[in-house]
């Protein structure tokens, strides 16, 4: 719950924090919903990402540059989380990280 409060505070959008915490993104803008769905899939099962997933991002209004940016944000988030796990020997949290969601929300609004 602490991450949800931080996301609500940092984004200024409590509905975004609730959507991420619950996994129910139906009420979010289509562009952000597409980015979050893509980020979750790319994080959890990258080998299953297909051209159809990229097509869904394009259909949501993202161009190739924005899609590359989204990939880089996800990759950086995964790398940072993996580094933190090695240092702390903690347990991997399957939820999308606060920084990732904030970055994607910023991308979705531009």
Q: Features of this protein?
A:
globular; 110 residues
Concise synopsis of the structure shown:
By secondary structure, the chain is mainly α. The chain has helices spanning 2-11, 14-22, 30-44, 51-59, 64-88, 98-109.
Overall 3D shape: globular
Total individual domains:
1
- Computed CA radius of gyration, to the nearest angstrom: 14 Å
> Biggest sheet: strands, sense, closure?
none
Give the % helix: over 70%
Which stretches of 5+ consecutive residues score pLDDT under 50? 89-95
Per DSSP E runs of 2 or more residues, the count of β-strands stands at: 0
User: What is the distance, rounded to the nearest whole angstrom, between the alpha carbons of the first and last residues?
Assistant: 28 Å
Strand content: under 5%
Structural class from helices and strands?
A: mainly alpha
Overall pLDDT metric: 80
Please give the count of helices: 6
The arrangement of helices and strands along the chain is: HHHHHH
Write a structural description.
This protein is an all-alpha fold and 110 residues long. It has one domain. Helices cover 73% and strands 0% of the residues. The termini are far apart.
How are the SSEs ordered, and which strands pair?
Elements (H helix, E strand, L loop, with lengths): L1 H10 L2 H9 L7 H15 L6 H9 L4 H25 L9 H12 L1
């Amino acid at each position: 719950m602490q991450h949800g409060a931080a996301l609500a505070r940092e984004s200024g959008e409590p509905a975004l924090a609730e959507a991420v915490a619950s996994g129910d993104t139906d009420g979010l803008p289509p562009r952000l919903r597409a980015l979050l769905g893509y980020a979750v899939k790319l994080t959890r099962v990258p080998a299953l990402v297909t051209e159809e997933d990229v097509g869904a991002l394009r259909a949501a209004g993202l161009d190739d540059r924005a899609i590359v940016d989204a990939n880089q944000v996800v990759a950086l988030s995964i790398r940072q989380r993996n580094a933190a796990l090695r240092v702390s020997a903690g347990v991997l949290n399957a939820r999308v990280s606060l920084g990732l969601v904030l970055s994607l929300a910023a991308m979705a609004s531009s």
